[in-house]
Amino acid sequence: MRELHYGSGVVTVSFDVCSAVFDYTVALANAGRTDRITVPVLADGQRGFSNLLLGPTTQLYCTAIPGVDDETVDEVNIEDFALVESLKQKIAGLHAEPPIRSSNRYLEPLEHDTELD
């Protein structure tokens, strides 16, 4: 389990979900895109869910949880392999699209109605 620090809050997620969220956030930032995802979290000792808005300006960091052992991890299953695979597919889709950059508008040729001498 990991603590995912998001904005001014913190949620407890699995290691795999944390890694996938980080990778997806980087891909979204590179593509200049934003998305909302729902992740399984540990809330008051039970499985819950949290919505995260991810995009180019999202600031995340993840930390290990001191004192959490395998028994604690096994008590509540917050893994979500379907979510991890879905995020991997979304990342692959973002890589297929060219990144949006503000400087791209200057690379397009300008068309003029008149000829210049």
Provide a descriptive summary of the structure in words:
The chain is of the alpha+beta class and 117 residues long. The chain has one domain. The protein has helices spanning 15-31, 70-75, 81-96; strands at 2-6, 9-13, 35-43, 46-54, 60-64. The strands form two sheets. A three-stranded antiparallel sheet has the order 2-1-5. It has a two-stranded antiparallel ribbon with strand order 3-4. A hairpin with a 2-residue loop joins strand 3 and strand 4 (46-54). The longest helix has 17 residues, at 15-31. The protein is globular. The N and C termini lie far apart (68 Å).
Give a quick summary of the entry.
By secondary structure, this protein is an alpha+beta fold. Helix content is 33%, strand content 28%.
Topology:
Layout: E1 2-6, E2 9-13, H1 15-31, E3 35-43, E4 46-54, E5 60-64, H2 70-75, H3 81-96
Antiparallel strand pairs: 1-2, 1-5, 3-4
